[in-house]
Prior knowledge:
By secondary structure, this protein is an alpha+beta fold. The protein is 59% helix and 8% strand. The chain has helices spanning 3-34, 37-44, 58-68, 122-132, 139-164, 168-171, 181-195, 197-211, 213-223, 229-236, 252-262, 323-334, 339-373, 382-411, 419-441, 443-468, 474-499, and strands at residues 75-79, 90-92, 102-106, 112-116, 267-274, 282-288, 298-303, 309-311. The chain has an eight-stranded antiparallel β-sheet, covered by helices on one side. A hairpin with a 7-residue loop joins strand 5 (267-274) and strand 6. Helix 1 packs antiparallel against helix 4 (122-132) and helix 2 (37-44) packs antiparallel against helix 4 (122-132).
Amino acid sequence: MRAEVIRIYKSVHTWTGIVAGFMLFIAFYAGALTMFEVPLNRWAAQEQRAAMAPLAQSEKLIADTLAARPDARKSFTLHLNDEEHIPGRITWSKGRGDKSPWSADYAADGSLHVERNTPSGMAQLIDHVHRTGGLPGDGEVTELIMGVVSTLYVVALVSGLIILLPSLSKDFFALRVGKNLKRMWLDAHNAIGIASLPFHIVIAVTAVVFAFHDQIYDIQDTVVYGEKVKAQMAAANAKPKPDRKPAAMLPPDALLAKVRELSPEFQPTAMQYTAPATASATVRIAGEDPRYVLRRDGSITLNAITGEVLNQSTFPGNYNAWAAPVAGAFALHFGTFGGTPIRWTYFLMGLGGAFLFYSGNLLWIETRRKNARKGGAVEQSRSTRWLSAATVGVCLGCVTALSLTIAAARLLPAQGAPLNSWHETVYYGGFFLCVLWAFLRGAPRAGVELLWASAASTLLIAAATVWRGFAIGAVDIGAVVMACGFAWMALAAMRRQRLGASDSVWSRKRTAATPA
């Protein structure tokens, strides 16, 4: 391939990577953590509650709850598994924006116990940061911006592959450790990039689809389906006409038995009732089936009065031509297949992806210094210093702020704080403070200091568990391991300050400047 073509693609790869790199680092680091959303939700559960009422009492519990609480008559969820982060056998809220749902269950004396809950919302915030690249504001707007960034990400992937093709057989997995740190960082960047290329292609393409799915559906509807998609989707989601006349619903056991007749391997986890105890009552039964690739979970909707199947387009094994590719895209992006091994693989790939964007910026900064040297020391330009400070502040600020908001899930409730509303404050407050710190202190000092801050804030997760008197679990052990990793990186950065080239942007040494 001609050298001129390689140079063009190298420029495209560099600038698309730099422009999109900050948001992609945040999306990948937060995305790695979302692989363990359920364990994090369980970890954040504050108090040990009593065991849920037996499932055999569900029919009576539903009747008692609807009689006592009119606000549950619009919709509620009957949970089939007793898990720490679920506040009670029945839960409901007053709309999608209600962050303090209600729960109902039987107390030890057999009375109906109803309470309003304040779940931490920590895992949901991490997911929000992942989907928006950490941008605050309206989620619909920030997710579109993330879609544009993901498109740049695809461009960076393609151009990076073209750059490496001529030397792929020679440099693949070559990690040359020595005095030439830039060479070592470049080897590590290339090796991780090539080894995880299929993963990155999947993530990039599906992220673009998620961000622009409404626009893609509209184009498909017009060009391919002759504007019949909405009618087809309405037919697939047929519901009984609203009818508020009281009607007796089938017991939960009877409804579950009908689902088992369709698929004995399907494992129901929750029953979401709509318009319960009326003539138009429906129930969406959600669950899992390890035999199939699922969107997040599978589901089937029944008439809660008759048990008639109303919609099974998202029931495992019954996906239609529309739902199957959508489920496949979700499963590939979120790693909802293959169980624990796939989740750990996605977690490590996510951290590797964050490293790619961090190392990409570092390489550009060091390459610029080498090109500008011309036989003498280089006086770093203001733009280079700002990019260095931004790289340190944004990347390590994200790490520090996410660790702080995770620890807050166990620290703040002990002080009586309204936790749900505090998580955003903790995250964005910590993040912007780190960015400001990086610009005030400069990249060399802030690089070391924020790595220590990352280590300390991550260690705080396990310390919060000890302080609250909870048993140490997998989340705490993982936090300690990652804190040790950040501490090791801080020590390495300190050595780099002392022993690295004096004209490097990461050095605190003063050098006799030569105009760049």
